[in-house]
Q: What sequence folds into this?
């Protein structure tokens, strides 16, 4: 999969992950897109290491893996920056 495909997949995964993750995220749109791209790469790497197969195309499996990685990346980002939304 080419770099442009990873970027596009990361943008889609970042948007889905932001919609799935509860609460407000204090970062802006560009940071969320960047975290989505990093999450897509992270999700693909974890899936490959666990033996779930390679992420090698723009299909439902790839979007699910990339979205999982993006959610994980957003959770890590929130933990590292110390920003948590505590709505009642």
A:
């Amino acid at each position: 999969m080419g770099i442009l495909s990873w970027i596009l997949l990361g943008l889609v995964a970042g948007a889905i992950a932001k919609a799935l993750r509860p609460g407000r995220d204090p970062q802006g749109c560009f940071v969320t897109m960047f975290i989505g791209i990093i999450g897509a790469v992270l999700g693909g790497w974890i899936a490959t290491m666990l033996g779930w197969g390679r992420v090698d195309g723009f299909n439902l499996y790839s979007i699910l893996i990339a979205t999982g990685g993006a959610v994980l990346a957003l959770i890590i980002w929130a933990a590292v920056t110390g920003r948590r939304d505590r709505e009642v």
